[in-house]
Structures are given as structure tokens and as C-alpha cells.
Amino acid sequence: MTVPGPTWVVATLALAAVALGGCGQPADRTAQSPADLVRQGWSQFTMGEYDLAARRFDAARQAAHDDAGTLAQATYGLAVTAWLRQPNPDLAHATDLFDALATGPDPEYAAWGALCLVRMRHLVPGNAVPDYPALYQRLKTPLALSVRSPQAVLIDLERLDLEPVELLGQLGELAHQFLALFW
């Protein structure tokens, strides 16, 4: 059995050092711009890495103190991450961030913040089964469709949670509130 010469050992060690040189912390530790951090945050969010996304958005918020647009983008990203993270969304933190956006100086993100607040408060969550009488009636039998339009579901007012008079009164009240916005 022959022992490799010193040149072979040195070459092997040099090759191992080059191969392992990429492991660990990146060599380039230059500061990243807030816009880059926001992009990385959305990338992490789409991959389901919510903790990493929240860290990127938070770092972008801290670094974007002079840039109101990037600060609003980072705040929006952090709020969406807190709201939609799985398995444990942080709804209180998301609500606070969306409130800050909705009352903030950036009109575009104020609208997005207000829209997200409405969605959080009034839409049925994705993991909940909504109680839609028309849906149940349509799924129960194919004969429950309207004669005038085969696409329209026939809603039986006797099977609703509300009495017909109360239902129509509430619909009228909603219509009144809607029309009051324009007149």
C-alpha cells in the first residue's frame, strides 16, 4: 500500500477548503436597500416562509425611515404576512398595521389598508364553512333552479333564518344606506 505524497495531500486540502468556502455566512455582508428587503420579503412570503418574510419586511421598515413609499410597502407586506401566516395568524398585529396604513399619508396604501381591514372583519375565513341557504338549496337538488333563468337559484324564504318581512326590511335598510352614499 502506498501513501500519497505531500503534493497530493496539499491539493486535496486546498480543494476541500475551496468546496467548503461557500458554507456558512455569506462573504458579502453589504447592506441591502429597503426595496431589496421588500422584494425578498415577498419572495419568502410566496414560499410560505412567514418568519423570514416578517423579518425582511421589518428590516425594510426600519431602514426606510426617509422613504415613505417603501415604508408603506414594507408595512403592507408585514401586515399581510401577520394576517395570512399559517398555522398561527397574528390578527391583532395585522389589524394594527392595516389601521396605520389606512390612516397614513400614502393614499394608495391607505386604500389597500382599508380594504384589508374590511376583508378581515367581514368576509368568511377560508377555513370556515359559510352558511348560505341558497348554496345548500342548490346542492340539495337540481330542481331548485329558477324557471326564468337556469343559472339563478330559487331561494325559499320559508327556510331562511329570518322571517320574510324582517329579511325584506333589512334589505331595504341596506339599500337605503347604499343610496345615502350617493345622495
Describe the model.
The protein has 183 residues and is mainly alpha-helical. It folds into two domains: 34-122; 133-180, no CATH class. It has eight helices and no strands. It has helices at residues 6-20, 34-46, 50-63, 68-84, 91-102, 107-122, 133-140, 164-180. The radius of gyration is 28 Å and the shape is elongated. Mean pLDDT is 77; it is low at 25-29.
Compute the number of helices: 8
**CA-based shape:** elongated
Give the N-terminus to C-terminus distance in angstroms: 99 Å
Order of SSEs: HHHHHHHH
- Arithmetic mean of pLDDT: 77
Largest sheet: none
Number of E-type strands: 0
Compute the number of structural domains: 2
Summarize the helices and strands and which ones pair or pack.
Elements: H1 6-20, H2 34-46, H3 50-63, H4 68-84, H5 91-102, H6 107-122, H7 133-140, H8 164-180
Helix pairs in contact: 2-3, 2-4, 3-4, 4-5, 4-6, 5-6
Defining key terms:
single chain, 183 residues, mainly alpha, 8 helices
Short description:
With 183 residues, this protein is mainly α.
